[in-house]
Amino acid sequence: MLKVNDINVYYGAIHAIKDISFEVHPGEVVTLIGANGAGKTTTLQTISGLLHSRTGSIEFMGENIMGQPAHKLVGKGLAQVPEGRRVFLQMSVEENLEMGAYTQPKSTVAAGIERAYELFPRLSERRRQVAGTLSGGEQQMLAMGRALMSNPKLLMLDEPSMGLAPILVEQIFDIIRNLHKAGTTILLVEQNAQMALSVADRGYVLETGKIVSTGTGAQLLNDESVKKAYLGG
Amino acid sequence: MTEFLNYLISGISLGSVYAIIALGYTMVYGIAKMLNFAHGDVIMVGGYVSFCAVFYLDLPGWLATILAIIVCTVLGVVIEGLAYKPLRQAGTLAVLITAIGVSYFLQNAAQLIWGTSTKSYASVMPGNLSLGGVTIPYISILTIAACLIIMVVLTQFINRSKLGKAMRACSEDKGAAQLMGIHVNRTISMTFAIGSALAAIAGVLLCSSYTTLNPTTGSMPGIKAFTAAVFGGIGSIPGAFLGGILLGVIESMAKAYLSSALANSIVFAVLIIVLLVRPAGLLGKYVPEKV
Questions:
Q1: What does the alpha-carbon distance between residue A187 and residue A34 come to, in Å, rounded to a whole number?
Q2: Smallest Cα–Cα separation from B6: which of B128, B186, B149, B106?
Q3: Is residue A205 part of a domain?
């Protein structure tokens, strides 16, 4: 479904992503783990078109999407839940969901919103509230619900657990498991390697802009070097 | 008392023009985060286009107004595309200086095309309504009505329409808006189109009230409307409306009862006082910069 080939991304003179290649197959949950600054978010932003690679290719559903602007990729089935959630704080919950459906035909929006409320009943209770008044966990749910409004073929989640209390992290990962069960393909970027690897079919470990190891979720969870670096022992 | 009412109505009418211009300023600021100092000169272009349409083509006032709206809308989008879009990633100062440059460009282009002499503009709606002792020019009634209609339509548009909501999304977070599939550059262009169309309407109304027109006609009302937008809270649509009306009334009253020479100084002094007390303007939200 997604095939990233040898991408290199620079911030000015800083070489942030070095020859990264990886794949995501339909129905999989794939995770990119790594420390702060390893290049996880940069990789996601390059796929979604917010940043651009100098080399290589990014194939999505068989088409090279590299260099295409972000707003075009949404209609092709690529949705990203950005780091820090970035919901529209001054807009209501329902308006945020409507924005998620921006590329969708008008006739399907109402049904999409109802589906989002089924998935996240908390949002339904707060539909008229502006998003700025929601708690962190609720904002994360809204950001995920908003991304799902575009009926994505691939959902990219950037640090969904960031800044959330442990109980909310559990909830968010339960939702990811449910989405996985329902057949959604997910690319998950996480600093919380333990949680990420426990839901992922496969994972890649990033270190200073390079992929240093890969394997199934279970393999990486038991890998000695991964344990040492990311799992606290 | 009738004198007071006359001044009040003339103030509200002037304020309505400021409000229409301020709406354009505030929308562009809200979405593109830039101060389009050429906005006032688009008003002047609107004035000249309608003037020529009436004077040379003998068109009726309403048709001249529509022509002015079309020309200014295109002009606004072209200015944005040529001068501002290439600077999207540049610093705010570069954009600000460019806007000032565009403003002088428009004034000088107008001098070349139409000359420097002041033209006498025929009101699109001449005549007065007498109510008791109060004389109300029809153009004042038209101006106030136009302002109210624009205000209501614009508010509905921003709150209810898909494009309006996309504008609010862009105003908050352009990156996130892109991730929704919103074409941010096109949305910004549309904002300029709407702002410039409003400037054209303001140009016709302003010239009809003052019946004179020259290449710098737009600059003082432009600055006043900018003041009104800041006064009401820049980025806020009701703020621009409130700021415009208040500014017009203050100016009119200052001219009538204090000193017509000092009227502008009084207007700006009020702005300074308001900003000292409420830095974000009357209806603006004060958002502390995050570090």
A1: 14
A2: B128
A3: yes
* ipTM of the complex, rounded to two decimals: 0.92
Task: Return the CATH number at A190.
Answer: 3.40.50.300
Who contacts B130 (Cβ-Cβ below 8 Å, separation ≥6)?
B136
**Cβ A226 vs Cβ A204: under 8 Å:** no
Tens-binned pLDDT, residue by residue, of chain B (291 aa): 888 999 999 999 999 999 999 999 999 999 988 889 999 999 999 999 999 999 999 999 999 999 999 999 999 999 999 999 999 888 889 999 999 999 999 999 999 999 999 999 988 888 888 888 888 999 999 999 999 999 999 999 999 999 999 999 999 999 999 999 999 999 999 999 999 999 999 999 999 999 999 999 999 999 999 999 998 998 889 999 999 999 999 999 999 999 889 998 998 898 899 889 888 888 877 655 544
Question: Any chain B CB within 8 A of the CB of A88?
Answer: yes
Domain count, chain A: 1
Is residue A23 assigned to a domain? yes
Which of A50, A102, A146 is the best substitution to test chain B (most B C-beta atoms within 10 A)?
A102
> What's the predicted TM-score (pTM) here?
0.91
Q: Which residues of A touch B181 (CB under 8 A)?
A: 71-72, 74-75, 102-103, 150
Tokens at A139, concatenated: 């904002």
**Cβ–Cβ under 8 Å, residues A90 and B30:** no
Q: What are the domain boundaries of chain B?
A: 20-225
**A201, part of any domain:** yes
